[in-house]
Design brief:
mainly beta; 11% helix; 31% strand; 1 helix
């Protein structure tokens, strides 16, 4: 299925937000995720089904100044 992840068009196999993170090798509870502009809590990512054309943002904290 085609998704937009962090502004980039990707073809993925995942059908849930949780599975997408695993497929793209994102790990850790420190990630922030949004699906079509709505923040998705880490504990609920497995519940969120993906559809073609969905926009997903994956944010991670950065260090430095």
């Amino acid at each position: 299925m085609k998704l937009i992840v962090n502004g980039e068009a990707l073809e993925v196999e995942a059908t849930t937000l949780d599975a997408l993170l695993r497929e793209l090798d994102y790990e850790g509870g420190w990630l922030a995720t949004a699906l079509n502009g709505d923040v998705v809590p880490a504990a609920r990512r497995a519940e969120f089904k993906l559809s073609g054309g969905d926009r997903i943002e994956i944010l991670s904290p950065m260090q430095g100044g």
